[in-house]
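Data availability excerpt. The first of two example chains:
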Amino acid sequence: MNSLRLKLWLSLLFVMLIIAVPAVVADHALKIVRAQHARAEASSQTLSAFQRLAVLGYTLQQERYVDPQSFVRDRALYIDGVRSHVTNAERYINAEIRLIGDTALQRKRRASAIEEEVKQRETLHRIGASLEKSLRGDKPDMMWEDLIFEAIRIEEREAKEFQRSSIETVGGVTETMQSSIIIVGIIGLLIVMWGQRQVIRPLGNLWRGTREIAEGNYEGKLPSVGTTEFRTIAESFNIMAARVRDAALAMQQTNAGLERAVQRRTAELDATNRSLARANQLRQQFLADASHELRTPLSIMRSEAEITLRNGNANVDDLRHGLDRVVRLSSLMAEMIEDMLHVARAEEPMLQTNIEPVDVVLALRECVGDFQLLIEADGGYIRITDAPESMIIEGDGTRLKQAIRIVLDNAVCYSSQAPEVEVSARVEDGEAVIAISDNGDGIASEDIPYLFQRFRRGSKKVGSGQGLGLSIARSITETMGGTIGLESRLNVGTKVELRLPLMPVEKTEDGNQT
């Protein structure tokens, strides 16, 4: 190993010695080339700025004669454009001055070059002043034309000088590098021929072997080639590969067994958890919604039947009217039960709706009629205080009645005295507004923000409800694009407003609304 290390160090030192001298020369020349190239590029940018300024000057002079009125109107803009071009060109000249200051030149040459650039900057200011004077005056001042041509000529000369100097310097560097390349190439060829046999081939074998192990292939073996050191490494590598192969096989078998067991147990646990969670959620949701939603129609049906039975002198029409109301409420209960089942199956609290034109006033009158006998039997009253003939919305009539009944049921249930309920309907800002007021016990102000949440009830809990009524009413109202709000005062009463967007009014060809 020591002999190989010594050979490599000697070869490296010899190559570095050959490269060092031309490298130093080339580095110095390249610095000069970069500086000259930078100055040539800066001079080209300055030249381009002068040329753009000349084009702008001729364009503005032409505009003066082609469209005098437009020229006079936009004169301020043209002057701003000239100043902008002058500022841009001055920035390039200042960049040239900085480059000259950073370049390794003799003091006199540096001072002379900076002085020339300062003169160019002064010429630029004179050109800008002449152009502005020409634009402001009635007659053009053409002094700027001679000045700008002279400035362009100077910048073209500078750019060509820097480019020619850069090319000459690059040529010298190229010759130096060519000589170095020839010498290094010959020596390098000899070193490569030696290293290919003694170093490169064994290293290539070692690299291929390590890559195969990294990819999981432990069957390959390294050939014993090269110097004694590389042969020893190859033998040690083959022994290590065999041990790693045995350990990897044992680990793979263990991991495979563990993964299969974990996957099986995880799948079983996930399935069980999902089944339990879904069953529990469906049970709670279904029982809560069913107990709340079925209570109202059952109470109305019972009251209707009791009132009819107590009326011993009832005629056939009265009996038919009572039975008709019972049948209609039974149908409503059937629809609610179907909705509850649908909600439980779909795990979705939002009820399905059938959107169609609905008369809000008609639905309101029907719901008030359903509660009238029940409330009057308790010594109270329910009446519609104000309502138009009709208000048409796009919604689901059954769901709208369900929301109204929920609010009316709350007005009856949460009142410690005979309920007095007043209902009104009006049109406001393109919306149908249903207002339901009662003289009940009222709601504490701290409970109002939470009343529309599911399973939330006021601090004064009355009855056996689950806190679902107002949340269901809000879901129904929002499904039809509306809102529901509530105002209440303790021991005074509660007012609930449902707002639903009216159906857009269409006009026929003769101008009538439909």
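And the second chain:
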Amino acid sequence: MDQRQIFLRDVLTVLFKHKLFIVAFIAVVTGVVLVGNYVWPPTYESVAKVRLIRGRTTSQPDPTVVQTEAAMLMVQLSREDVHSEIDLIYANDVLQNVVETLGLDDAMDREVSPVRLALWGVRELEYAFGLKRRPEPKQRAVEALEEAIQVTADDRKFVLEIRCRLGDPQLAHDVLKALLAAYQKKHVDVFDQPGSMDFFDEQVARVNVELFEAQQKLETFRSLHQVVSLEAEKDLLLAQYTDARKLLLQLSESEDAAELAAEGKTDQILVAALSEETENTVVTELQLRLLELLLERNRITENLGPRHPQVVAIHNEISRAAERLAEAITATRSTTHARIADIQKRLQELNALEGELEDLQRRVDTTSDTLVYYTQKREEAFVADAMKDRQISSIRIVEHPTVSVNPVSPRKLLNVVVALLVGVIGGIALAFFLDYLDHGLKTPEDVDFYLKVPPLASFFRTGHNQPLDTTEAHRLSTMLDAVQSGVPNQLIEVTSAVPGEQAGEVAIGLAKARAANPDWRVLYIDAAPHRSEDASLKGLTDVATQQATLDDVLTQDGDLYRLPRGKAECPAYLWETRSMQAVLADLRQRFDRIVLYTAPLCVSTDAIDAARYTDGVVIVIKADSTRREVVARALDMIRSAHGRIVGAVLTERKQTIPAVVYRRI
């Protein structure tokens, strides 16, 4: 179901309706708190602050270098370190030390606080049902002390704030002072490592021997295999191999050039080939000599001709120079091939030695790292032993515990203010909750939302035996004419779901309002069961059973005609008889408007039987009384009888909002 829209008037209605309940709730809550302020014993608090600065258990460097007397570099703590320090404070042996030092076996049992009282009740239930065994007095004192101690940490400043709350201010101060002493001693004992110096000395000596042996093996291996720097030697051999391969390529080009020169050819390609330098100086010099002879031959040939004796002599000299170049190329090629073979052999040897050399070097590096680690740990152990011997703690008390003068609880003014707020909020919340549980129909908006029928009128509560508001009755008549516009509106039935809804008063009020119209003849039929004083009157049932006529039973009260129910019985089938239909038809002929009042649906079936023969049914509901589910069921019964629901009327409405406020919202 969709939620009905809530208006300010609805909210104020709930508040003014339950105003006495809200005020009573506020008074009760405030009264309980006021009594508790003076009955509950006071609690005093002692506070101390501890700064954590230590270096033997952490590894984060502190931006500010702090040098102690032992020349130890302090480092900053992590958040986990701070939480571990809090665990040390709550350690069972630390609290036991405080209990034994101050003899708190009985003193802690006399401490009373809201938290302790609640926990005491829970624990007593656990002891009673055998869920836990009852502890010894000393252990109970330790548990009570743990509840009285509260530790908070400032992670940015690494400061622990320790609070002790007890009923005696001097006892709270003494407990906190003893706790700090026990905590400092526990702190030194926890980080003490007995025999660590001897252990690390042994490890350093052992690792030194292993490192010396590993270094000796590495040096022996390098000397045996003539390895100084494996990577450097490999790079050098690869460079030599590249140069040798390049030289072979140059020798091939020089050899081709020598053959062309011996055949007497001279062109630009040949000149370029002989002009290039090679990696071998002998070959390069022979190439240049051959190139000079070729150029000289070309010059003389142009001047003297190809058959001149000087040209022939130079040609012979060129042939001998080409032969010498070819011989030098052959010798250099042979030497280069041998050199390449030696380089390849050495590279293969180095590749084979590389894995073993890496293993030896890795062993040296690992052993060296291990030596550094054990050396560092030995230094830390030395510092720890020195701090223990001198009872140096890495915690600093920056604020010593003090004796409190004023109690921290109960805070009387704050408690009263909170009680007022809780009373107001709780009272209002309970008022709305009670209103939510109330399924009565309170306003015309409720009628429209929950019943889906138009609200025709609403009568506010009047005094005892006072008539309903005539103005609202005229409004009801006008609304009926508006709702029934265009449809028959002559015979209207007025009924209710349960007795006590003032349906009869609404019906007679409606009839009188309609009778005020001089152009209408209006009839009011009271079809409800006879009351004791008019049980002898004849009426509708007598006419329907032909025991009387309409003229005999009709009475007139001013402009309003009345027709009682009658003294005869009215079974359910009577409404379906021809005689009853004839009576209703005759009444419709005689009167312009007819108001039929029937008994509530839970008392008689007349409302359902008559609904099918009327032009509309008006259901009357007592505000804040009848549940909407009951009214909805009554409407369903009328609809099942093919009756037409015109609307609903609320009675006994309460004016909860003062008129001054109501007019402004």
